[in-house]
Backbone:
């Protein structure tokens, strides 16, 4: 009995000695182990961020329900076991050193992460997932997970994309155009400017046609007449499964035929493999979307666009995206 | 005889009001369409000399007209079947979804959305599962023995099947992709006519209109059924066969309505009471009156759903929010009248 107590005390002492006090990106002070070797992401958004920089430390990944089979990502990603963070016992069974969770803006309420940390007694580290700060996020992860070299490559890639986009944005003023983003069947679910689901457009200063309040929890439903009044110049239709994409409906239905975007042939289907380019989920997977939109709105040469997107797939998904695969991603059904 | 004539006058007045309401609804919406635009559009059908802008034509004919007609047929079907069920089960709290059709249809639609099927298949799946749910209820009630009260076993089996399908809907919602599939399912379940097209209408019209006729013809038999099975049998009605026929037609009508509109509560429960207050309990008059009042009510509610805000308000919400005070008002008024 005495021996057991001694061992426990020693273990605790070791644990305490190896603890490091850090400040996460949200400014929370937390104590994490000196060397982090087991990480689990809080959700699929952070799974995507962690995979390229610390794939081998990820002992589990999160998946989006209903999206089991995904293409264009390294097979080793699919081999990482799945976990549902809501299942506390499962998390305690794998016993990670830290849980990585994301947030989007400094005012965001992150109480649930704090509660989870207190409940599981596992540190929850918050990283910034907003579109313009992802280079800083990788720099932070590099030092947290002792993966500085790997993260530097990713961080440099992102800084370079940001710099290029800044230059493009300054080179030409955008005409008075507006975009309508829609997802799901029917084309009437949308998100306004300011929503994390349409941050890609805000990031590029492209005006969003939907002038509505930001819907809490999900997307807003609007009606056809309202879309006619907004009369967007561009439509981007997203949907994970082919049939749940409104693209075909928008081109085919008579009620859509009067919309400027349809008349001028500016209806686009948003690529969604392995993750959406605009959203689905809102994480680092939106960078190809940003590059794609830079071509559409700021005349980035297509060759450059293709190169940057292929490089993104290589660095972040560990996948060599061949030319024909790039074209099949971009093709309009 | 004189009373009957009055009833027909009422019915015709209701029909006229329905048409006026529908026409007025063609003027309501987010997009501005003036009375003269509508007038010109109607005249343009008769003569080529009248020119109407393509946008007005699209708004009125391709967006508003299908919605208004769909609201008429869906509201009508739900109210008529609600009135028929209330008579048949001799229970004022019964609505068309009592035998599980809405839950079944909701499950069918959710499943189709989850698999990623197109709009047509969502309707088909919803329709089939709506019917399957009622079939299951009917079979359970058949096997539950002859000694039991038939209406009670039907209602109880309806509750069981509804519970099962509601749980299955929750399960599908739980495993659905939260970024696009889940909101689609949630919006479908809240009810909406926003994506209505002319092509969808022919299918519901083919079921709703013959259904209305059959119910009008069978109305007098339903009157007898509401006295109780024994009385009806003594008057020479084959109650079992009649009940089966009525349930079958009502199920087809409700399943067709729900499959194009999603789940719209209240109408089927509330409107029959209003119709009964105005027209009395005679089914051959009550049923068509319910159909028209229900249709007009849903057209009115849908006008609000699609026009008050730039976001579409799901029909399930507006029907309840508008229906409840409306119903309270009618209850209070009829209470006062009875006191005098």
Residues:
């Amino acid at each position: 009995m005495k021996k057991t107590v001694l061992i426990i005390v020693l273990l605790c002492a070791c644990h305490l000695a190896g603890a490091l006090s850090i400040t996460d990106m949200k400014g929370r002070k937390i104590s994490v182990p000196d060397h982090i070797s087991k990480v689990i992401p809080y959700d699929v958004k952070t799974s995507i961020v962690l995979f390229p920089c610390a794939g081998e430390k990820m002992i589990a990944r999160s998946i989006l329900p209903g999206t089991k089979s995904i293409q264009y990502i390294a097979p080793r990603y699919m081999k990482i076991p799945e976990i549902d963070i809501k299942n506390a016992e499962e998390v305690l069974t794998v016993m990670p050193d830290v849980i990585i969770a994301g947030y989007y803006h400094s005012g965001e309420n992150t109480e649930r992460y704090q509660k989870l940390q207190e409940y599981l007694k596992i540190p929850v580290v918050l990283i910034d997932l907003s579109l313009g700060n992802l280079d800083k996020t990788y720099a932070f992860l590099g030092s947290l997970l002792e993966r500085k070299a790997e993260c530097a490559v990713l961080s440099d890639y992102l800084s370079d994309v940001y710099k290029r986009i800044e230059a493009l944005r300054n080179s030409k003023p955008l005409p008075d155009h507006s975009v309508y983003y829609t997802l799901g069947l029917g084309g009437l679910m949308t998100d306004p400017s300011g929503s994390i689901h349409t941050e890609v457009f805000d990031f590029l200063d492209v005006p969003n046609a939907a002038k509505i309040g930001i819907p809490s929890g999900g997307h807003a439903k609007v009606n056809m007449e309202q879309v006619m009044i907004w009369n967007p110049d561009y439509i981007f239709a997203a949907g994970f499964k082919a049939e749940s994409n409104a693209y075909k409906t928008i081109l085919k239905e008579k009620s859509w035929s009067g919309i400027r975007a349809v008349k001028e042939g500016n209806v686009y289907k948003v690529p969604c493999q392995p993750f959406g380019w605009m959203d689905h989920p809102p994480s680092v997977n939106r960078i190809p979307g940003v590059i794609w939109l830079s071509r559409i709105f700021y005349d980035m040469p297509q060759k450059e666009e293709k190169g940057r997107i292929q490089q993104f797939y290589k660095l972040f998904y560990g996948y060599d995206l061949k030319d024909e695969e790039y074209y099949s991603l971009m093709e309009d059904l | 005889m004189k009373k009957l004539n009055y009833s027909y006058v009422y019915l015709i007045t209701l029909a006229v009001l329905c048409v006026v309401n529908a026409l007025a609804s063609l003027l309501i919406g987010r997009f501005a369409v003036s009375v003269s635009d509508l007038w010109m559009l109607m005249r343009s059908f008769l003569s080529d000399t009248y020119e109407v802008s393509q946008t007005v034509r699209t708004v009125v004919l391709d967006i508003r007209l299908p919605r208004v007609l769909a609201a008429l047929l869906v509201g009508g079907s739900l109210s008529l079947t609600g009135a028929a069920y209330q008579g048949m089960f001799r229970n004022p709290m019964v609505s068309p979804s009592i035998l599980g059709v809405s839950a079944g249809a909701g499950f069918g639609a959710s499943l189709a959305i989850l698999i990623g099927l197109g709009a047509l298949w969502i309707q088909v799946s919803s329709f089939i599962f709506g019917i399957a749910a009622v079939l299951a209820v009917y079979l359970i009630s058949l096997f539950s023995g002859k000694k039991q009260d038939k209406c009670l076993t039907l209602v109880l089996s309806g509750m069981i099947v509804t519970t099962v399908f509601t749980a299955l809907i929750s399960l599908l919602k739980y495993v659905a992709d939260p970024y696009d599939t889940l909101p689609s399912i949630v919006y479908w379940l809240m009810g909406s006519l926003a994506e209505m097209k002319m092509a969808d209408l022919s299918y519901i019209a083919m079921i709703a209109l013959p259904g209305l006729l059959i119910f009008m013809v069978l109305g007098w038999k339903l009157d007898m059924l509401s006295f109780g099975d024994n009385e009806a049998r003594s008057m020479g009605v084959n109650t079992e066969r009649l009940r089966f026929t009525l349930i079958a037609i009502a199920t087809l009508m409700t399943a067709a309505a729900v499959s194009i509109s999603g789940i719209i509560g209240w109408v089927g429960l509330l409107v029959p009471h209003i119709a009964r207050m105005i027209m009395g309990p005679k089914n051959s008059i009550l049923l068509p009156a319910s159909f028209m009042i229900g249709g007009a009510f849903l057209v009115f509610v849908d006008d609000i759903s699609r026009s008050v805000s730039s976001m579409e308000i799901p029909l399930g919400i507006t029907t309840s929010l508008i229906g409840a005070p409306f119903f309270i008002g009618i209850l209070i008024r009829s209470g006062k009248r009875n006191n005098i």
